[in-house]
């Protein structure tokens, strides 16, 4: 049974006239008769009663008509939905993001929704391990996170930018006017840190493990907005990628300049499942994200060029 045959059947059922139906379908009457006969043979029962004066539906024809119309409607909806995906006037986009990427993602999400208001965007924040599992299970379209130390053969990690660790403080903090800070100096301050397992924390912990430094970690959390609020309203210091707070008002990122972490750059990546279909909405979002990253790299990050 073909969609075309159902279309011919519905038109004939509506007109009950082979000549009229054929004209409205822009086919010959013999083609219409042949296709209806093929459909009846496949279903093994007649759909129309024919004589020299009239055409009428059989019981099977009456039963098939509403089902055929529903099928044609579903087929039309299918084509419409696919066209919506192609033109980004519909569909869903499922994004995974780690702690450090929340600020970077925010501007792009807003810009994407303004440009494509009919695409539903679902953003999940979690650890990289959990997000990669969801990506492998096709629950996410892509993941924004730093490049892991161990590569995954199933994942294509595309680097978007390189950033370093920074001490993040309130704009009113004593460190806010500094151009740089060292790991040794951070021992003097109370720290509020992201939980162990985040990439920035992993890089920090790996670096300080090579020293005898002792830090006053007062708070650990995985809630980025609460962490930022604590920083704004206190003298706490945290250590994150310098990109994490690029769009955050009232916060300053001071690069950590230290021989121990000189080569420990953090590579911000978009992670995709290898050999998987990539939605047009994913391509467009990643393109817009790249533009946003380039924008702040050229402006906000210029102050780090001389370090």
General description of the model:
The chain is an alpha/beta fold and 307 residues long. Helices cover 41% and strands 21% of the residues. It contains nine helices and twelve strands. The protein has helices at residues 3-15, 18-25, 29-43, 59-87, 102-115, 128-136, 199-208, 224-232, 280-298, and strands spanning 48-50, 55-57, 92-97, 120-125, 142-146, 155-163, 165-170, 190-194, 216-221, 238-241, 251-255, 266-273. The strands form four sheets. A five-stranded mixed beta sheet has the order 4-3-5-12-6, sandwiched between helices. Strands 10-7-11 form a three-stranded antiparallel beta sheet. It has a two-stranded antiparallel ribbon with strand order 1-2. Strand 8, helix 7 (199-208) and strand 9 (216-221) form a beta-alpha-beta unit. Helix 1 packs across helix 3 (29-43), helix 1 crosses helix 4 (59-87) and helix 2 crosses helix 3. The longest helix is centred in the first third of the chain and has 29 residues, at 59-87. The radius of gyration is 31 Å and the shape is rod-shaped. The model is unreliable at 298-307 (pLDDT under 50).
Summarize the structure.
By secondary structure, this protein is an alpha/beta fold.
The proportion of strand residues reads: 15-25%
Indicate the overall shape.
Answer: rod-shaped
Number of strands: 12
Radius of gyration: 31 Å
Weakly predicted, low-confidence segments: 298-307
Secondary-structure-based class equals alpha/beta
Major sheet: 5 strands, mixed
Helix content: 40-55%
Question: Mean of residue pLDDT?
Answer: 87
Separation of the first and last Cα atoms: 71 Å
Strand line-up of the largest beta sheet: 4-3-5-12-6
Order of helices and strands: HHHEEHEHEHEEEEHEHEEEH
Number of helices: 9
């Amino acid at each position: 049974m073909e969609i075309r045959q159902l279309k011919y059947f519905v038109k004939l059922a509506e007109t009950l006239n082979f000549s009229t139906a054929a004209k409205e379908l822009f086919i010959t009457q013999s083609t219409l008769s042949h296709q209806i006969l093929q459909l009846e043979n496949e279903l093994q029962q007649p759909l129309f009663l024919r004589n020299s004066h009239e055409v009428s539906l059989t019981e099977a024809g009456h039963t098939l008509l509403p089902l055929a119309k529903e099928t044609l409607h579903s087929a039309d909806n299918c084509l419409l939905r696919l066209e919506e995906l192609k033109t980004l006037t519909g569909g869903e986009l499922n994004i995974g993001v780690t702690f450090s990427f929340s600020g970077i993602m925010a501007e792009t999400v807003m810009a994407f929704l303004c440009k494509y208001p009919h695409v539903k965007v679902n953003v999940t924040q979690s650890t990289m391990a959990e997000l990669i599992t969801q990506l492998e299970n096709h629950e996410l379209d892509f993941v924004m996170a730093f490049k892991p130390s161990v590569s995954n053969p199933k994942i294509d990690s595309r680097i978007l930018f390189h950033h370093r660790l920074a001490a993040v403080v309130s704009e009113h903090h004593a460190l806010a006017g500094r151009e740089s800070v060292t790991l040794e100096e951070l021992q003097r301050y109370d720290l509020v840190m992201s939980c162990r397992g985040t990439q920035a924390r992993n890089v920090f912990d790996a670096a300080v493990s090579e020293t005898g430094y002792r830090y006053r970690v007062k708070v650990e959390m995985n809630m980025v907005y609460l962490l930022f609020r604590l920083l704004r309203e206190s003298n706490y210091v945290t250590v994150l990628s310098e990109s994490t707070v690029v769009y955050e008002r009232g916060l300053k990122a001071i690069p950590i300049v230290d021989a121990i972490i000189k080569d420990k750059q953090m590579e911000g990546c978009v992670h995709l499942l290898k050999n998987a279909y990539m939605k047009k909405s994913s391509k467009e979002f990643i393109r817009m994200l790249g533009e946003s990253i380039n924008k702040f790299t050229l402006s906000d990050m210029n102050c780090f060029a001389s370090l």
